[in-house]
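Example (one chain per record):
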Amino acid sequence: MKSSSGPKQQIFSHLAEIAAALAHPHRIEILELIAQSERSVEDLAERIGLSLSNTSRHLQVLRRARLAAPRREGKNMFYSLVSETEVVTLLTSLGRVGERNIAEIDQVLQSYFRARDSLEPVSRLALLERLRDGSVTLLDVRPADEFARGHLPGALNIRLDQLDAALGSFTQNVPVVAYCRGPYCVLSYEAVAYLRARGIEAMRLEDGYPEWKAAGLPVKI
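Predicted structure:
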């Protein structure tokens, strides 16, 4: 007779808790946000567009699954990732499985993302080499507070709505590589499309700041 409570089954039970914690789009979005840096419950609620109570409930689920950890400062509660590298890798793997196996995801990628940028993105290692020889301008299009808490070395922080006024910041004949929160962050796609329409050679980084940091590559904090 097979045991229903053996060591393997116990491990699978805990893994199922992690999978259940990921089974809501708001919780995946929360993980994407705290992968940038630690955030307060109030900040997360505002960025996602949820009430404080709903945001807190989602955070409690992530906390019980050991994906997010709280820190109290006075009356405020802040959350950050637990085992940052592993959680970012988990989210990346989830995205890859979805892209390969779910037709609806591929349709969104084709109709929105690839319609704005069908070129092959720049890999992390290729960007690192270009940064070392100074042959690229690096553009971070995330909000200023996220940039201030950590970014790739040498990056310019210019929001999408500031690009027109900042076109003079880009050196002629030096390609621009843009990045933001991750592989599905629309900001870098929009930035690349905007710059190309104005005659500036522009490409995307293959993912974003959390993946770069999780890979152990240099960051500036």
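Caption: Residues 84-101 form the longest helix (18 residues).
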